[in-house]
Amino acid sequence: MLCIRSTVENDGSATLSRMDASDQIPETPGRFASPAGGGGGHTDAVRDLTAGRWEGRTVFASGSDDRTLRLWEAATGQPLGHALTGHAGRVRYAAFAGPHRDILITGDDSGVVLRWRSDAGVPRSESFARLESRIVGLGVANVDGRALVGVGTGDGVVRIIDAVTGEHHAEVRVDAGWELNRADIGVLDGRLVALTIARDPAMYRPSLATLTMWDVASGRPLYEPGGVPEETEGLGTFATLDGQLVAIRGIDPYHDFGDGVDVDDEQELDRTEHEFDEEDEDEDEDEDEDEDEDDNPYQSEYFLEETDDFWIVDVATRKVLKEYRRPPAGASVATFARSGRRFVALVPLLTVINVIDAGVGAESGGLDEFQYTGHSANVCCVATAELDGRTIVASGDSTGNMRFWDLDTPERSPHPRRSLPFQNS
């Protein structure tokens, strides 16, 4: 979800709805063997997964470092046909766009974005965008009847493109000279918003990246930007749960360790408020350097224990809905789904996938949180789809292995599920 991850229903819509637990779907036994005449799995790391509709069926699409794309039938976990070629670079991003999630958009590490359509049952690709900078995020949203794709690039730009026509719609730019490391788009109260995580390359490391929520139409931040530790600066994903736009992100160290800025809704933002005059710089240079070191949260021994923590936040109010402490590693990807009557976040950390309460909805807090342990290598991506009242999860790892599993039937899973080893509040 820059990739947005939405649970896809049978009719192609992205609305999350109540479901009941049912039988476990067949699990993919590691990397698929290639049958005669085609099929098979990836031969290198699976970098992204997305769920959508293809030829009337609910499918997953996976992008890999082997420079191919694959379609998988959600009902069986089996590949649909041959690997799809067309990218010269490693396929790092994939997303189904449109109100029915039936327009597949993919991006590689050479800056090429392709759009895929079915031509009499045969997948065909066409150029969607060719960018000079590396892609750092690919997200989708529907606003005023338009299917939009947001492509974030390392040169600090999030380009919003019409998924159907390919026309430029809008763009968001971070501060000049800054490097963009993560981007996503979503819809808040009917308007298009964007999330960016960027940093000044001149800053010493370790240091904080800057996370900003943008109103795309005005090109201005929704509220004062915040910090995020570099350990989680790759984590920034939107999702709409029961009409509520939420984001999963790393913690804001200034919230706990610094002065921070509390901006009222009516307060005018001044993006230069932290700058100072040249004469002040000459006068207080030494003092400022000392203060900068003191203000850096990385100077705090306590903070170093918190750098991998992450939040789920309400984008409209900035309220922290859930906080997860002491995970075994920093997260870089996540997706959301509904489990029974509750919303959950699925967060890969190393070789396991943590299924955690999203903190949204009337029944939040009653979830038996757990880890899925079906992978033996680091998990790189995860996506979910609803099919016949079941939530099916697809996950891919660094060796090219794929797993397909039912979110709500732990007693029938061929892999053990264990309790979370870290804290949440």
TrEMBL record:
InterPro entries: WD40/YVTN_repeat-like_dom_sf (IPR015943), WD40_repeat_dom_sf (IPR036322), WD40_rpt (IPR001680). WD repeats lie at residues 39-82, 372-415. Residues 268-297, 404-425 are annotated as: Disordered. It comes from the Bacteria. Residues 275-296 have a biased composition (Acidic residues). Pfam families: WD40 (PF00400). Transmembrane segments: none annotated. SUPFAM superfamilies: WD40 repeat-like. This is Uncharacterized protein.
